[in-house]
Amino acid sequence: MLPAAPLAAYLRLRLRLLARLLCEIGWWRLVLGGAMLGLGLLQALASLGGHPVGRWLLPLLGAGALLGAHRQRADLPFLASAAPGFRPWLAVEYGLAALPGALGLLAVRGYGPAALLLGLAPLVAWAPPARADAATRHRWRSPFRSEAFEWVGGMRATKGLWLWPILVALATWQRAQPLAPVAGLLLWLLVVAACYGIPEPSPMLTLAARTPRQFLRRRLALGLGYAAATAAPFWLLLGLGSAGGGAVLAVALFWLWLLSMVILCKYAFYPVVGHIRSTQGLVLAVGLLGAWHPAYPPVMLAAAGGLVWQSQRRLRAVLAT
């Protein structure tokens, strides 16, 4: 049995942090994004939940998302020093986070996948945190310009330069399957997005920025330029398959649009890592799950306008200090 008082205190603290994050996001962006995310999740649940094999993917995807978020948590060292027996607290937290997904699976009679999700989610609490970057011991020459510091440090931390040729090779091997390059694009998007999850120190930002608008333009130009160059093989494979030129162009523009939203999220909520990653995850989830809905274009345009305004406002405040 877990001591009730410390566990309740920890859960109350997490709820307060969540409430603070939601207030920071803003109620109107939260309502629009939450509605689209909910509709997308319901669509995914209806599509995969009715498939005998697809329904088993849902608990694996849910546990994988929890695992990625857990390994990047910044408070794990603090919890380990302040409360050595904190792992069961995390297990309860992750079990509660997985409960809505399990209830959704139960609604489509996915009893086995629901049990699997509730069984895997608490186990994530015992996964080790991501290792600190060991680049200071093993120097290597990055193919990216030093000005694109997100790509230099991010690709080193995520091992993206090792993963990229593997993804391209797998997509080429399975090029007869239209979903192969699409899956490669999705995985590569997650790798690139991870590069923008950690804010740079404010002195770097101050040295690189003249005005907030110029700074954002430069970050978007560098990020989208390298992203387009590395995603081009997947777009080429998609074009060589059954997809037409118009479909390839639409996929490419949508992919770059999502990445630009991820970059804007970084500076809209700078320098709070938790807020940055949470909003980036929300943007990606809404974009990938809700793109089918006719309300998606106006919602994303409104979100983009809000992120541009918020990022310039936050940068202006940082540069003024």
Strand percentage lies at under 5%
SSE succession: HHHHHHHHHHHHHH
If helices are DSSP runs of H or I spanning 4 or more residues, what is the number of helices? Answer: 14
Give Rg in angstroms: 20 Å
Average predicted local confidence, pLDDT:
80
What class would the helix/strand composition place it in? mainly alpha
Keywords: Membrane, Transmembrane, Transmembrane helix
Organism: Hymenobacter ginsengisoli
Transmembrane segments: 21-41, 114-132, 153-173, 179-199, 220-241, 247-269, 281-309
Protein name: ABC transporter permease
Q: Mind sketching the topology for me?
A:
Blueprint: H1 4-25, H2 27-49, H3 54-71, H4 76-82, H5 87-107, H6 111-123, H7 149-158, H8 160-173, H9 179-195, H10 202-208, H11 212-240, H12 245-268, H13 273-290, H14 296-320
Helix pairs in contact: 2-3, 2-13, 2-14, 3-5, 3-6, 5-6, 7-9, 8-9, 8-11, 9-11, 9-12, 11-12, 12-13, 12-14
Protein name: ABC transporter permease
Transmembrane segments: 21-41, 114-132, 153-173, 179-199, 220-241, 247-269, 281-309
Keywords: Membrane, Transmembrane, Transmembrane helix
Polypeptide structure, described:
Helix 3 packs parallel to helix 6 and helix 12 packs antiparallel against helix 13. This protein is mainly alpha-helical and 321 residues long. It is 77% helix and 0% strand. The chain is built from 14 helices and no strands. It has helices at 4-25, 27-49, 54-71, 76-82, 87-107, 111-123, 149-158, 160-173, 179-195, 202-208, 212-240, 245-268, 273-290, 296-320.
